[in-house]
Amino acid sequence: MEPPLSSQNQPVSRRTALKLGLAGLAGIAVGGAVGAGSSAFIARLGRTAPPTYRFFSATEAALLIDICEQLIPGDDVPGATETGAIHYIDRQLCGVYARHQQTYRRGLEAFRLTCRQEYQRPFSELPAAEKFAALRALETGRAPQALWGQPTAQAFFNLVLAHTMQSFYGSPRHGGNRDYASYRMLGLDYPPMVGRNRHPET
Amino acid sequence: MALKHVNAVVVGAGAGGGIVAKELSEAGLSVVLLERGGWVSFETHGQDELLNQRTTVLGNAYGPDERHPRVHEESPGQWSIVPPNHWGYGNNAACVGSGTVSYGAMAWRFLEKDFRMRSTYGAPAGSTLEDWPVSYDDLEPFYEKAEWEIGVAGDMSANPFVAPRRRPYPMPAFAHAREGRLLDAAAKRLGFHPFPIPMLRNSVPYGGRNACIHNRACCGYACPNNAKNGTHNTVIPRALATGNCELRTHAIASEIVVDDRGVVRGVKYFDAKDRAHYQTADLVVLSGGAIESARLLLNSKSKLFPAGAGNRHDWVGRNLQDHAYSGAYGLFEDEIYDDVGPGATIAISDFNHGNAGHRGGGALCNEFIRPPYGFAGLRPPGAARWGKEHKDFQRQFFKRCGAVHGPVQEMPMFTARVQVDPVVRDHWGIPVVRLSGNRHPDDIETGRFLASKAEQWLKEAGAVRTWTALPGIMQRSGQHQAGTCRMGNDPTTSVTDKHGRVHDIDNLFVADGGLHVTNGGFNPALTIMALGYWVSHHIKAGWKGKPT
How far apart are CA B406 and CA B367, in angstroms? Predict the structure, then answer.
């Protein structure tokens, strides 16, 4: 379901490394540890590229991260940003949620324009109360109609909200809920272990 | 290459078909059991909160996949093509055992009046409400057989509304978890008659399988401990052990071949590599569930049945039912959650019948444990859906929220139906299902009544804030799908006779929820199983063919 990582992330493909008998060394190279004793081959390898997104541009991702954090803010327990909401959404958009790609692309752009028109500033620079108000306006259908066609502001908001909740409360294997943060918040043991979550009274 | 002729083809290895395959193969008939899915196991998706059969936002853990689209009427005149994990799809799992692998496993017998709804209440205007052509007494021995062969834990001694039984349950009932104990005491104070929910799940080791370990995630998931009983771990292995039954998985049935004399010759299907096959047989039994069995009949056109097999009078696919679930939620001051799965343990049957001004009603039960994601979408009216307020609500109330719900018995509607789409085809080129229609307005009123009782019960148990959840007017079928191949004595107003034999096609049978004339105020799995035994019994009694 997931697309292959882009080639820039993998200066040496795993297959090439195996051919060269360097599978282990390629792993070391990813850490960027190129010591004086390394072979010339390893010295030629570039540093691993910083994490990139499968679907989002860096600008889109930054805005979406900010939105998600308002939906599930961090406090003494991690929120959406820290638990990886952006990674959950980004992954699903290149998998089972591919049909929502345009909703995100257009919705994020419409929201960017909305903030510029209503607040004359990007969302990231708004004080907390105004961030809340801007998102409430989307949720309640009070966003400027002229800037929103397909999706409507409400449809966009509801989609992001649903996906953020899925990220935070779903299984970490999909990219969110890092370190089972939401389960720890709720006092649930996770993952439940067969044979270990027995209850003596029953 | 032509496939070897067999005595019987059974289409669908779920609650009904698994039983038919076992009964016929044990009687010496050669059987081919076709299943559109494969064998599944807990390990594939574990306890994934987003990818199971109850929460399907990332897909159906046990199928079907996106090669099986449907068309759904989302609002009058507005049709859309929906994938199998869409709420409007009406899904039931595509795997060996089907829904019985991942169901909550409530094991209800319908009540006597559930088989005589029209005689008891009269049909409301706009509904095709009717009596079953069989009675509770007819089915009682077959309910018993299902309870013992598949395995049910229960105890009805505290329930005065239950229909008579000849033999007790094979396993003792499950004990209540903390929420159940609170509700038990509250029900008694209110004069209700609480009892433990009968379950197709092992309270003690049974049938060579383990006892339940009280997992949090149960409804929607395969059991990691093989303690939940479906056809996949009971009757289907027994059928295969006879040596007379061959199970073909990933087999997509496309047509029942009916000859010019109105005799079924066999079933056309596609295998896992999309190769077309034609399996001939002396008789065919459809057990694909109410929606897919109706589709297969409609897609099987022949000289005598140009509108589909058994559809001479336009009743195939009509009267699609499920349950108009209604109930209430309550917030408590103290923690009522103790993480003892699967949560649902207690029921009352006080409001299944005898509710002034209502036809029928439904059982009321506490709910299976809601995973944190499910709980995130559950709020009293007016509460914030996001932000710090959302997070605080989760923290405060995840372990302090109780729920009581009930499957309201629906009034059958001729206009709630399964059709085949004139344009849209699936991966194999087979016309797909088209779902449409509304519930009867009475269902909503009965739901309102039942929800008020649920709310009263939660308040008595100590809930400080309660709110109700009512059904919508749109027919929304799913695992409880029923009614599309109604059994009846009059061939002009039903699809099969009282033994599940399709009118005017002597060697074609249905054995699934499609037969249900009405769907009871209970989860239907055990009734589908009882009908599997009932239909098999009559096929065997009439069998004069030779083994092949």
Answer: 9
Q: Does the complex come out with an ipTM higher than 0.90? A: yes
Within 8 A of B385 by CB-CB distance, chain A residues are 139, 161
Taking contacts as CB-CB distances below 8 angstroms, the residues of chain B near A201 are: 175, 340
Using the beta-carbon criterion (under 8 Å), do B216 and A197 form an inter-chain contact? yes
Q: Does pLDDT of A33 surpass 70? A: no
Domains observed in chain B: 6-542 (3.50.50.60)
User: CB contacts < 8 Å between A and B, how many?
Assistant: 99
This prediction has a pTM of: 0.92
Report pLDDT digits (tens) over B89-145: 999 999 999 999 999 999 999 999 999 999 999 999 999 999 999 999 999 999 999
Q: Which chain A positions have a beta carbon within 8 Å of B394's beta carbon?
A: 182, 185-186
The pLDDT value given to residue B46: 87
For B237, phi then psi, to 5°, come to: -55, -35
Query: Which of A71, A161, A170 comes nearest B373 by C-beta?
Result: A170
Cα–Cα dist A26/A31, whole Å: 9
Residue recorded with tokens 């509770």:
B136
- Residue B253 dihedral angles phi and psi, to the nearest 5°: -70, 135
- Tell me the pLDDT of chain A averaged across its residues: 81
Using a 10 angstrom Cβ sphere, with 0-12 exposed, 13-18 middle and 19 or more buried, the burial of residue A39 is exposed
- Counting Cβ atoms within 10 Å, is residue B75 exposed (0-12), middle (13-18) or buried (19+)? exposed
Partner-chain contact A72 B339, CB within 8 Å: no
Q: What's the mean per-residue pLDDT of chain B?
A: 97
